[in-house]
Amino acid sequence: MGSVNGAEALEALFRLQEKDLELDQLRREAEELPQELVEAQAQYEELEERLAGLLERQAELQKEYTRHSLDIQDLTEKERQAEEEQKKAQSAREQTQYENRIQQLKDRIRELKELSKPLEDSILDLEEAIEALKEELSALKPRLEALQEANRVRVAELTLVIEEKVAERNRMAEAIPPGLLKEYEAIRRARRGTGVVRMLRQGSAFRCEGCNVVLPTHVAQKVVQGQLVRCPSCGRLLWKG
After folding, report:
1. Which pLDDT score, from 0 to 100, does residue 4 have?
2. What is the DSSP letter of 114?
3. CA 103 to CA 95: how far, in whole Å?
């Protein structure tokens, strides 16, 4: 490739890269969620997590409360049976034995009721907290859905713009030699989006715009002549600008 053609190809490649960088930015914008939406989603997820925790705790307490209630029912029935049997006692000794048994049952029933009371209070407190969280979620949901819809519209609009830019980019790429284009794309993937950079003059020295390394004189001369040269440090294609 002659020096003029090489210089023209590099200039076209540099313009193509500007389009590629513009597309990169647009794609990032499409992928990134607006901060307001991020915050609303985080708030909603936090409320859901708290609600799940409260519901789990409520289920645990309810299970324990139910177990106590069933035990109380069982002991109450045993107490009733003991009282019935006491009436049939034939001796004072049997009467005393039944009285002791009945008293043990009463003591255990009272103990279980004492244990059940704070459980019941805690369950009621949890019910209030759960209802409050559900109300918060219900209040936040319309706003979250509105933000999600606005973002969907934003992304759809950006997608149309990106499609137009991609068509422009493809037309620009047609003017670049396929081998050079393939080399540029490979470098761009490896070098954070830039495959071709300008050579900058600084006093009597020349630097690579990509990595800021001072270029050897023979490399700088080739770039000035329009030859296809890569930076010996970062590997990007150099354009004299």
Report:
1. 39
2. H
3. 12
pLDDT digits (tens, 9 = 90+) for 10-49: 999 999 999 999 999 999 999 999 999 999 999 999 999 9
Cα–Cα nearest to 95, from 105, 83, 107: 83
Phi, psi of 153 (to 5 degrees): -65, -45
Total domains in the chain come to: 2
Mean pLDDT lowest among 10-14, 26-30, 57-61, 85-89: 85-89
Are 60 and 153 in a shared domain? yes
End-of-domain residue from the set 118, 139, 173: 173
Parallel/antiparallel/unpaired status of strands 237-239 and 229-230: antiparallel
Nearest-10 Cα torsion for 63, 65, 71, 76 = -150
pLDDT digits (tens, 9 = 90+) for 147-182: 999 999 999 999 999 999 999 999 999 999 999 999
Dihedral sign of CA atoms 118, 124, 126, 129 in order? negative
Domain enclosing residue 120, as ranges? 33-173
Q: Do 82 and 105 meet the contact criterion of CB atoms below 8 Å apart?
A: yes
Whether 10 and 230 have beta carbons less than 8 Å apart is answered as: no
Work out the angle between the directed axes of helices 92-173 and 35-87 (0-180°, nearest 10): 160
